[in-house]
Design a protein that fits this description.
Layout: H1 9-17, H2 23-41, E1 44-47, H3 49-64, E2 77-80, H4 107-114, E3 119-123, H5 157-164, E4 170-174, H6 181-187, E5 190-193, E6 214-218, H7 221-231, H8 249-257, E7 265-269, H9 279-294, E8 298-302, H10 310-325, H11 347-358, H12 361-374, H13 380-403, E9 406-410, H14 426-430, H15 437-442, E10 446-454, E11 463-470, H16 476-494
Parallel strand pairs: 2-3, 2-4, 7-8, 7-9
Antiparallel strand pairs: 1-3, 4-6, 5-6, 5-10, 9-11, 10-11
Helix pairs in contact: 2-3, 7-8, 7-16, 8-16, 10-12, 10-13
Bound molecules: glutamine.
Length: 506
């Protein structure tokens, strides 16, 4: 019998529609796989088995009654814990939200529920989505299914590991500086950061509101397009939501899979390669460029001179926005409340005690940095300059997209590193996102497609690498066309999907 956990969402959807399998069977297969591999992987903070099966039963009954259902009806999904889910814990990986059960759903969760997709559970993440390894979670590490001693990327390491370990065919991530794409790259999964405003932010626990964007984490490019079309599109409850309809993403993915990229110009960004990128990562990147050329694309080199300052600008803008967004966690309204051990119980002392106990070190570091960058006398020098750099980066992109339809780079400069390796060195951790951050600063969409394996410099088993494609704002369809063409070329070269080569943890 086919192992249902190995099938893509598109194939599962087809089998469900044709009545070859039921949603209860598919959901149960995922839950059994969770029971088998979660002790080793720890991708989930909460598994909602009963609720998922109840949704599955309901969808099966509606299908049996001949009801017209959404194409993804009955396909299970995992959701990053920074997205609020009614009746289901939502901690954002923080002790300060331990035990908080939201009274409402994020818009994207509402859409998932309305489509009849069973929610398997909530996935692990760096606290408040700050990090690149998921080691800043207050609830323990997630392990990379390719090598359990390595990080699954971050902040959405749980969603990527869940999909890579075949415990969920689909997952939701959020990407403020790379938290969908970088975990995708290091776990051999596909991750998409949509155009800013392309997916509603209503019900995301905000990190940096001008950068945050939710998106799909999947095993195939087509699956990302299917999920993106479900969760994307205008939402009146998010004032930054784009009013126009999404481009035809599924159509673009299907067209790309046919393998013809003639007429497409691909721009290689000079600043996003070379020094700091592992030679193996660079080699896989160049092979992928050759495959795109063979598919008919024209490859040119483009320069984005201000990208050099992207990381510095990001680490002023993000902490500034985060320090303001996190001010609401004060021990007064929801989540943890700690009263001072002695002395008077004043509001200020309760806030200090609660925040001192509830936030982890990385979160405190960024609150302090952000508050400093915004303080009187420093505002222009730090936050103001960072905003100017942000404009220059947007202008670099505008100029580059005059020369190319899409821009490409390795997604992450390295393959997955060892747990603990960069934990004491925040700067080394921040450098994981050099290639992903510019897209967030400019609000443009990006995808990471698994593009091969590379042996890390210290030796050992080969690990996944990712290929990043960036497109102009609102042209997310280009990601899917180029991404699907690359995926098809790579699969015919390897004789199957990359993830088939991952160790079987079951
Ligand atoms: N790693 C980046 C950071 O720590 C990105 C985070 C994200 O995209 N949520 O800020």
């Amino acid at each position: 019998m086919t192992d249902l956990t190995r099938l893509s969402a598109a194939v599962l959807a087809e089998k469900l529609r044709a009545g070859e399998v039921t949603s209860v069977e598919v959901t149960q297969a995922c839950l059994d796989r969770i029971a088998a591999v979660e002790p080793a992987v720890h991708a989930y903070l909460h598994v909602s088995a009963d609720e998922a099966l109840a949704t599955a039963r309901d969808v099966d009954a509606r299908r049996a009654a001949g009801e017209e259902l959404h194409p993804l009806a009955g396909v299970p999904i995992a959701v990053k814990d920074v997205v609020v889910t009614r009746g289901m814990p939502s901690t954002a990986g923080s002790k300060i939200l331990e035990g908080w059960v939201p009274p409402y759903d994020a818009t994207l969760v509402e859409r998932i529920r309305a489509a009849g997709m069973p929610i398997l559970g909530k996935t692990n993440m760096d606290e408040f989505a700050m990090g690149s390894s998921t080691e800043h979670s207050a609830y323990g590490n997630t392990h990379n299914p390719w090598d359990l001693e390595r990080i699954p990327g971050g902040s959405g390491g749980g969603s990527a590991a869940a999909v890579a370990a075949f415990t969920a065919p689909l997952a939701i991530g959020t990407d403020t500086g790379g938290s969908i794409r970088q975990p995708g790259a290091v776990t051999g999964t596909v991750g998409v950061k949509p155009t800013y405003g392309g997916v509603s932010r209503y019900g995301l626990i905000a990190l940096a509101s001008s950068l945050d964007q939710a998106g799909p984490v999947t095993r195939t490019v087509l699956d990302s397009a299917l999920l993106h079309e479900l969760i994307g599109g205008h939402d009146p409850r998010d004032s930054t939501s784009i009013p126009e309809p999404l481009p035809d993403l599924v159509g673009a993915a299907r067209r790309g899979a046919q393998g013809d990229l003639s007429g497409v110009t691909v721009g290689v960004v000079t600043q996003l390669q070379g020094e700091g990128y592992q030679p193996g990562v660079q080699a896989r990147f160049e092979e992928s460029l050759e495959l795109l050329t063979k598919a008919g694309a024209k490859v040119v080199e483009v320069s984005c001179p201000h990208f050099e300052y992207a990381l510095a600008a990001y680490y002023l803008i993000l902490p500034a926005e985060a320090s303001s967004n996190l001010a609401k966690f004060d021990g007064m309204r929801f989540g943890l409340r700690v009263e001072p051990e002695d002395g008077p119980v004043t509001a200020e002392r309760v806030m200090a005690a609660t925040r001192g106990a509830g936030f982890g070190d990385e979160v405190k570091r960024r609150i302090i940095l952000g508050t400093y960058a915004l303080s009187a006398g420093y505002y222009d020098a730090y936050y103001g300059s960072a905003q100017k750099v942000r404009t220059l980066i947007q202008q670099d992109f505008d100029a580059a997209f005059e020369q190319a339809d899409v821009l490409v780079s390795p997604t992450s400069p390295t393959t997955a590193f060892k747990l603990g390796e960069k934990l004491d060195d925040p700067l080394a951790m921040y450098l994981n996102d050099v290639a992903t951050i510019p897209a967030n600063l400019a609000g443009i969409p990006g995808i990471s497609v698994p593009n091969g394996l590379s042996v890390p410099p210290e030796g050992g088993d080969a690990l996944p690498t990712g290929f990043q494609v960036l497109a102009p704002a609102k042209a997310d369809d280009r990601l899917y066309r180029v991404g699907a063409a690359l995926e098809a070329a790579l699969e015919s070269r390897w004789g199957g999907p990359l993830l088939d080569r991952a160790p079987d943890l079951g």
